[in-house]
Amino acid sequence: MPDDFNPMEWITTKEAAELTGCHVKHIRRLVKEGKITGTKRGRRDWWVDKASVKAYIAEMKRLGPAKHNP
User: Fold this and answer.
1) Residue 37 in this model has a pLDDT that exceeds 90
2) Which of 30, 41, 51, 67 is at 20 to 30 A from 10, Cα to Cα?
3) What is the pLDDT of residues 45-63, one digit of tens each?
4) Cα 11 from chain centroid?
């Protein structure tokens, strides 16, 4: 996370879950897999980049049902 942290550009994993319709654990998994940008700030607070979440949502909509096929 950049030193000039702007809370308007970052959201919590809970907010990302609400935005995507996914579970918070899935959001954390997406961060670990590098599919969205996120970081741990403090001891246990996870933050994700709002733009990367929106890009992920757009990609899932673009893929549609194909996202579940290998």
Assistant:
1) yes
2) 67
3) 889 999 999 999 999 999 8
4) 8
Q: Which of 19, 7, 31 is nearest to 57 (CA)?
A: 19
Q: Got the DSSP string for 32-54?
A: HTTSS-EEEETTTEEEEEHHHHH
Residue type, 1: M
Which of 49, 60, 47, 51 minimizes the C-alpha distance to 21?
60
Its CATH class, for the domain covering 10-68, is mainly alpha
Question: What is the DSSP secondary structure assignment for residue 1, as one 8-state letter?
Answer: -
Two tokens, residue 13: 């994993």
Our measurement of the distance from residue 46's CA atom to the centroid of its chain's CA atoms, rounded to an integer in Å, reads 10
Residues 64, 55 contacting (CB under 8 angstroms) = no
Whether residue 23 is predicted with pLDDT greater than 70 in this model: the reply is yes
